[in-house]
């Protein structure tokens, strides 16, 4: 009996040890598959690795496992010349799914040419992927995608370690350091790309990687950027929305004939000039603006937005975005989308100050959620019972001390190799295109870095790549940027004085 008990005890200890080992290594496991995609008419073979890599604390303890997917072009013998792109989405609390299976990766979800869901849901080849010129890793921060903290960590510890502007940048920089070391990519030209909240993330990472990990980048790409911590003030914040309103009104043919008859990009410069030179000063005067001046400004805003002078005056010349999305097509019974104004919604009542829901985000979740779950299991062969968090619990998010625009400026000043590309959609009301231009103006007041900054606009919204025409163009702009920002062999990173 004692012998049987001893055998059972030994087996139990072995089983417990095995289970404990599995629990530990579950934060550090990968699976690899292979594939091929035709890009610009050329077959590109690649290896796809997906799984988790740990996050460690200062004591060397695993505190989280970040899920990632890494695409490497096959047949590359010299990786020191092969660019590496590290890709993040935003939220905060959003997975990397959006750019992963709709923008730069070798596979994209099945949608129509304007970005709307179609059935059956699925995945198809991306003929515009940048995998021909760069390897790409898509990273999910804690609580997004399949990424999770250890189960022993409480909410307070999670907030302290992960959920804030500075916390996010610090632990992700360490994770990138480990990834680059494991993949032996220290010699490769390196690029960060971030969308939406991913833009302050990668802007902050550019300096953190450089100053704390001595990892120097070649380029940063900001897709639909936020304000990056740049102070605007109430007048600038209110006035800067006008060009976006004008673009949306033009799309729905709500402008006067002389404006409507122009092409979008021919019409917008007039609105931008008015915004900077006249609207900001007018709004800054507040209640001390004369009645006649107020009437003149209201008339001009009405001309550029398709809204009535009456509602503009009722809002003291400051049109809230929510009201604009509700008001523009109110008489037709529709609302317009927040992140992409081309999407229409239907509210319970036509009355009200803002839409009942975000028409564009509902549409995107409709198409992306089944596609990423299908893709992970059936194409990448990643097996897990975890829920894929399109948006995960990361709130409250500590937004204090957001210096990410200044971080990026410092990184560029310290690193002559580093270049910046900004991409924005004209119909994005969440992170509007004109404010992305304003970021560039304010980021470097000296103007000494502007030759290394570039801006591109697209006739779509927050996710410009969902529109097939912009998918091709925006990827090509990234491809050109990578080639331009990868220096010629032997070219030194230095500033030179003019003689």
Supply the CATH architecture of the largest domain.
3-Layer(aba) Sandwich
In the CATH scheme, what's the topology name of the largest domain?
Answer: Rossmann fold
Gross geometry: globular
User: What order do the SSEs take from the amino end to the carboxyl end, as H and E?
Assistant: HEEEEHEEEEHHEHEHHHHHHHEEHHEHEH
CATH superfamily of the largest domain: Alpha/Beta hydrolase fold, catalytic domain
Overall pLDDT metric: 94
What's the total count of β strands?
14
Low-pLDDT windows of residues: 5-25
Radius of gyration: 25 Å
Distance between the termini: 94 Å
Binned strand content: 15-25%
Biggest sheet record: 10 strands, mixed
User: Class of the largest domain, according to the CATH hierarchy?
Assistant: Alpha Beta
What class would the helix/strand composition place it in? alpha/beta
Give me the number of helical elements: 16
Give the helix proportion (percent range).
25-40%
* The number of domains: 2
Keywords: Carboxypeptidase, Glycoprotein, Hydrolase, Protease, Signal
GO molecular function: serine-type carboxypeptidase activity
Signal peptide: 1-20
Protein name: Carboxypeptidase
């Amino acid at each position: 009996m004692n012998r049987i008990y001893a055998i059972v005890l030994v087996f139990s200890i072995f089983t417990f040890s095995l289970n404990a080992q599995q629990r530990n290594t579950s934060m550090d496991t990968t699976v690899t598959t292979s594939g091929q995609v035709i890009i610009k008419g050329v077959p590109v073979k690649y290896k796809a690795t997906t799984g988790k890599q740990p996050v460690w604390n200062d004591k060397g303890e695993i505190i989280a496992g970040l899920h990632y997917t890494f695409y490497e072009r096959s047949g590359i013998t010299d990786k020191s010349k092969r660019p590496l792109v590290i890709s993040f989405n935003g939220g905060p609390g959003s997975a990397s799914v959006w750019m992963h299976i709709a923008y730069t990766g070798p596979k994209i979800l099945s949608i129509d040419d304007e970005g709307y869901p179609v059935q059956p849901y699925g995945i198809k080849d991306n003929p515009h992927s940048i995998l021909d010129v760069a390897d790409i890793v898509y990273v999910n921060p804690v609580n997004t995608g399949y990424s999770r903290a250890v189960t022993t960590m409480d909410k307070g510890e999670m907030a302290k370690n992960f959920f804030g502007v500075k916390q996010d940048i610090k632990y992700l920089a360490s994770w990138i350091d480990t990834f680059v070391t494991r993949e032996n990519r220290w010699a490769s030209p390196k690029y960060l790309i971030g969308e939406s909240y991913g833009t302050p993330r990668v802007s902050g990472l550019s300096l953190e990687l450089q100053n704390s990990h001595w990892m120097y980048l070649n380029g940063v790409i900001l897709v639909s950027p936020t304000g990056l911590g740049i102070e605007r003030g109430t007048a600038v914040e209110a006035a800067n929305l006008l060009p976006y309103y004008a673009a949306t009104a033009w799309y729905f043919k709500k402008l006067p004939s002389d404006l409507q008859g122009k092409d979008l990009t021919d019409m917008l410069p007039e609105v931008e000039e008015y915004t900077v030179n006249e609207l900001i000063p007018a709004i800054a005067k507040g209640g001390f603006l004369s009645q006649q001046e107020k009437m003149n400004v209201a008339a001009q805003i009405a001309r550029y937005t398709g809204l009535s002078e009456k509602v503009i005056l009722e809002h003291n010349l400051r049109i809230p975005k929510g009201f604009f999305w509700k008001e523009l097509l109110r008489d037709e019974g529709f609302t317009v989308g927040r992140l992409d104004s081309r999407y229409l919604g239907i509210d319970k009542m036509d009355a009200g100050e803002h839409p009942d829901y975000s028409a564009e985000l509902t549409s995107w979740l409709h198409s992306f959620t089944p596609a990423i779950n299908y893709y992970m299991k059936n194409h990448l062969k990643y097996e897990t019972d975890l829920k894929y968090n399109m948006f995960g619990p990361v709130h409250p998010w500590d937004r204090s001390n957001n210096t990410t625009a200044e971080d990026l400026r410092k990184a560029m000043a310290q690193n002559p190799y580093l270049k910046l590309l900004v991409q924005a959609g004209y119909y994005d009301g969440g992170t509007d295109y004109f404010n992305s231009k304003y970021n560039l103006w304010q980021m470097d007041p000296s103007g000494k870095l502007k030759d290394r900054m570039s801006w591109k606009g697209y006739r779509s919204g927050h996710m410009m790549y969902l529109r097939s025409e912009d998918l091709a163009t925006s990827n090509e702009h990234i491809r050109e940027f990578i080639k331009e920002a990868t220096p010629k062999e032997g070219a030194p990173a230095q500033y030179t004085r003019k003689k």
